[in-house]
Amino acid sequence: MNKETILGVQVSKETYSSITDKLFNLMGTSDQAFIVAVNPEKIMKAAEDPELKDLINAADYQIPDGIGILIASRLQKGSVRDRITGIDLMQTLVAEAEKREKKIFLYGGKPGVADKAAAQIQLDHPKINIAGTINGYEKDEEKIIETINAANPDILFVALGSPKQEEWIKANKQRLNVSVFQGVGGSFDVIAGNIKRAPKIFIKFGLEWLYRLLIEPWRIKRQLALPKFLLKVFSGKK
User: Fold this and answer.
1) C-alpha to C-alpha distance for 135 and 115, rounded to whole angstroms
2) What's the pTM?
3) Where does residue 101 fall: left (phi above 0), alpha (psi -120 to 50 degrees), or beta otherwise?
4) Which domain of life is it from (predicted)?
C-alpha cells in the first residue's frame, strides 16, 4: 500500500496524477474507492477517538489536505510530499470526467447549493455529464439511494461535513452503483461562490489556514492544534 501512518492514521502517498489514474482505471470494474481528506486537526481528534480513527483508516485513500501533514511526514522521515486538497482533487476529477465522458453526482449542502455548484461546473466544463444533485437536507435515505442509483454516476461527491459524510459513505457505498466516493466538506459552497477561497498565493504555499486566520481571528484556538500535532509527531507519542 502506498501509505504511511501518522499518529495511527493512514495517509496516502499519492499525487494528483497518480490518484486520478487509479480512480479512473477502476471505473467499469466491480471495485469501489472511498476518499477522505485528512489534516492535523482531524488526526488529533482521531488520536482521542478510536471510532473516528477506524473510520478514516477504512477509506481507500486518505489524502493529505494540509501542509502540516507534509511537515509531520518529514519529521518522522516519511515520504508524503504532495499536498492534495479536497476541493482541488474534486475539480481535478471533474475535469478528467469531462475528458473521459464519465458521470458525476453532487449530494449534500443546503437546499440550492448543490444545484448552484452544478451549474457553475457545467459552465466551466460544458461537456461534463452531471447525472444529478440532492441537497443534504433530504431525510428519506431510501429516496437518496434510489435517486443516485437511477442516475448511475461514476463519481459521487458528498458534502455533509466531516465526519458525517464519511460515515454516510461507509454505511451506504455497498448499496450504490458508484465507483468513486469523495467527501468534499464545504466544496460545493466554494464552487457555487457562496464562500470565497483564499487567494492563489496562499494556496500555492499551503497557507490557506493563515488566510482564514487573518479574516476570522476567532479560529486561533483551532489553529493551535497544528503546533500540538507537530510536537506529538516529533516526540513519537502514539
Assistant:
1) 8
2) 0.91
3) left
4) Bacteria
The gap from C-alpha 71 to its chain's centroid, in whole angstroms, comes to 20
In the numeric block, the cell 488526526 is attached to 43
DSSP H or E run through 24: helix 16-26
Task: Supply 152's cell numbers.
Answer: 448511475
Helices (H), 27-112: 40-48, 50-57, 67-75, 86-100
What single letter denotes the amino acid at residue 218? W
Residue 85: which residues within 8 A CB-CB, separation 6 or more? 37, 63, 65, 203, 208
What is the per-residue pLDDT for 216? 67
User: Is residue 235 scored above 90 in pLDDT?
Assistant: no
Find out whether 144 and 138 touch, Cβ atoms under 8 Å: yes
- Fold assignment, 3-192: Rossmann fold (3.40.50)
Q: Identify whether the C-beta of residue 168 lies closer than 8 Å to the C-beta of residue 160.
A: yes
The type of residue at 80 is: V
Domain ranges of the chain: 3-192
pLDDT at 226: 75
For the cut 90, the answer to whether the pLDDT of residue 94 exceeds it is yes
How many angstroms separate the first and last alpha carbons of the chain?
A: 21
Whether residue 92 contacts residue 20, with contact meaning beta carbons closer than 8 Å, is answered with yes
The answer to whether the beta carbons of residues 187 and 157 sit under 8 Å apart is yes
